[in-house]
Amino acid sequence: MDFFAKIAWIIPLLPLAAFLVLMTLGRGFRRAGAWIGSIGALGAFVLSLLVLSERLKPHAIDYSYNFSWISIGEYTLRIGFEITNLTALMLVVVTLVGLLVNIYSAGYMASDERITVFYGYVSLFTFSMLGLVLSDNLLSFYLFWELVGVCSFLLVGFWYARPAARAAAKKAFIVTRIGDAGLLIAILLLFWNMPGHALDFTSIQSIFGGHGGSFTDGITTVIALLIFLGAVGKSGQFPLHVWLPDAMEGPTPISALIHAATMVAAGVFLVARTFSIFEAAPAAMETVAYVGAFTAIFAAVIALAQNDLKRILAYSTISQLGYMMVALGLGTMTGAIFHLFTHAFFKALLFLAAGSVIHAVHTQDIREMGGIGSRMRVTAWTFAIGGLALAGIPPLSGFWSKDAILTAALEHNPLLFGVGLATAFLTALYMTRLFVLVFLGKSGSKAGEAKESPLVMTIPLIALAVLAAIAGFVELPWNGWLSGWLTDEVIEPHGSVAVIGLSIAAGLLGMLAGWLLYGKGIAGSQPLASRLPRMVKLAERKFYIDELYEMVFVKSLRGLGACLAAFDTYVIGGAVKLAGSAAGAAGKLGLRLQNGQVQTYGVAAVLGVVAIAVVVIGRRMLS
Amino acid sequence: MLPSYLTMGAILFCIGLYGALAKRNAIIVLLSLELMLNGVNLNLVAFSKYGVIPSLTGQLFSIFTITVAAAEAAIAVAILIALFRARGTVLIDAFNRMRR
């Protein structure tokens, strides 16, 4: 019955095998790199699909398997894997996007020297992400969580010859590390306080779900907030969002895979997985909701003023992750997972389409593009579908998931609903601006040489475009199939005509405004910059967050580091050098005596004997 | 009688010691070493005759010493000749290769 769930542990091992083969034998076969990586991803995807198909049967039972890993005294640490509806869904999303990115990269990275290394890293990333999804306890989850961070570091810094890529890789690693520290402390707190030191998700759920255990409200809130800190780091929420836009220095397929569809979703997945803790801590829930809402609108405003194609999409990712956090904070875990599900497809699509454009025009500045829609029809159409899905235009997938979140917001908190609606408007506005500046209008300076990308790149685009268009139908306002499936509860239809109407209106208004401002050109080429120079400048410089961090944290830490380095060089190093030079001086002194003359040594020996004799005889005489 | 023999032995030893430590010519140094050995021999013989418990052991020892000294002198002179052939000098302060 649950045969495929039992062998689900093979799923992450396939990309791992691909990684090992590529890393050990990779130099030998450049062409085959793409094949090996893609076959690993394909195998994982097929298996994931089979697992999901098993889960789709009614009354599927969660399957988990664990074994004892480490025994210390009376405590036994057990690790293993767990198949629930949520993990099965995530498996399919991760492997599907991973597979399409693998195929796409064969075209995008074809001329790169280190393409096999690239595929090796991608396979390692897929392995760690799948391990993270399958983990049945927080400790192995944390292990894979860090492994994902390492892969992100490797892939952002893939073109390490560029100083910007190196800096971005370091930034991504260090900033997410701040969040990881929070998660680690949360795990330690749980380890101390859980009965039997259990760290597996099932026990956590049963303890917190029953409002029991030895947890006071205070410690529950602290644990929830620390877990959320980890999610903030990984999912690029304010104030740890700064690494995500910089991470766009990596190759574009990576931006699609890691920084849009999978890794950044790990934060949302973490909160969803430990959702019972959050449900037991209302203060933490509110924090999640407000941080998410602020991030959503904040990033949307910044996206409006950026000129780098990938950075706009990066800020849009941050903004959409904010939406998911809002959903989690409002208690609708299924809404967050639904948005994660649809977002994975349309954002991966947007990034891959953007990569196709960058591949053709060799620039990322949207002011240098323009008018390439007619030269790259497939890319333009698929990008349009992704953009419309992101902007929340029915019946594309983004509309339904955004609608689910907005409905929940209207029920619980009108303020969050307003912010969500404003963000939806801004989203439609910046996506229209992006589309108009890149694909329509007059040809830009770099647009002349643009050609459509090869089939190996356009086929993943088309596949993702289909998914981005239809993925939303798994849950409609009047038919909560996904929610029911995820939570095993019967969900009442929760649609609200007002929300649907307002949401459509916001999206259409945003598009209309974007068309009027940028498409018709009624207000010049830089319509906002001339009207609201201060505001645009502020948003263009990302509200000076980077500069602020540079001033407050980086400078002070550099200063502290310089002090410590000076202490190390002069105090500790000085002591060591002193010891060394003292020994050296003693040696020099000894060398003086060592003149090679036997007679000198004889004199010394005689003097020694005389001295001993004097001492011995002197003592005799005295006593 | 004993003190005069002992004094004689001490004088011989000291002259030998001075020569061994102060002379530059290696031959003289060798001769001085013989002098020191003989100072010691004198002591041994004197004690065996006039000591608290007279015994022949001391004289026996001195005969051993003389034999060993003869062998030592033969080897030392052989080494000195080899050194002289190699280095062209018997001045002892020229032989400081160990320093480097």
TrEMBL record, chain A:
It holds the Pfam family Proton_antipo_M. GO terms for biological process: ATP synthesis coupled electron transport; electron transport coupled proton transport. It is found in: Cell membrane; Membrane. Residues 69-119 form the NADH-Ubiquinone oxidoreductase (complex I) chain 5 N-terminal domain. One of its GO terms (molecular function) is NADH dehydrogenase activity. Residues 135-426 form the NADH:quinone oxidoreductase/Mrp antiporter transmembrane domain. GO terms for cellular component: plasma membrane. Keywords: Membrane, Transmembrane, Transmembrane helix. It is a multi-pass membrane protein. The chain crosses the membrane at residues 6-25, 32-52, 83-104, 116-135, 141-160, 172-192, 212-233, 254-275, 287-305, 312-330, 336-358, 378-396, 416-441, 453-474, 494-518, 559-580, 600-618. InterPro entries: NADHpl_OxRdtase_5_subgr (IPR018393), ND/Mrp_TM (IPR001750), NU5C-like (IPR003945), Proton_antipo_N (IPR001516). Its main location: membrane. Belongs to the CPA3 antiporters (TC 2.A.63) subunit A family. This is NADH-quinone oxidoreductase subunit L. It comes from Paenibacillus pinisoli.
Automatic annotation (TrEMBL), chain B:
The chain crosses the membrane at residues 60-84. The keyword Metal-binding does not apply. One of its GO terms (cellular component) is plasma membrane. Keywords: Cell membrane, Membrane, NAD, Oxidoreductase, Quinone, Translocase, Transmembrane, Transmembrane helix, Transport. NDH-1 shuttles electrons from NADH, via FMN and iron-sulfur (Fe-S) centers, to quinones in the respiratory chain. The immediate electron acceptor for the enzyme in this species is believed to be a menaquinone. Couples the redox reaction to proton translocation (for every two electrons transferred, four hydrogen ions are translocated across the cytoplasmic membrane), and thus conserves the redox energy in a proton gradient. PANTHER family: NADH-UBIQUINONE OXIDOREDUCTASE CHAIN 4L, NADH-UBIQUINONE OXIDOREDUCTASE SUBUNIT ND4L. Belongs to the complex I subunit 4L family. This is NADH-quinone oxidoreductase subunit K. It comes from Paenibacillus pinisoli. The lineage of its organism: Bacteria, Bacillati, Bacillota, Bacilli, Bacillales.
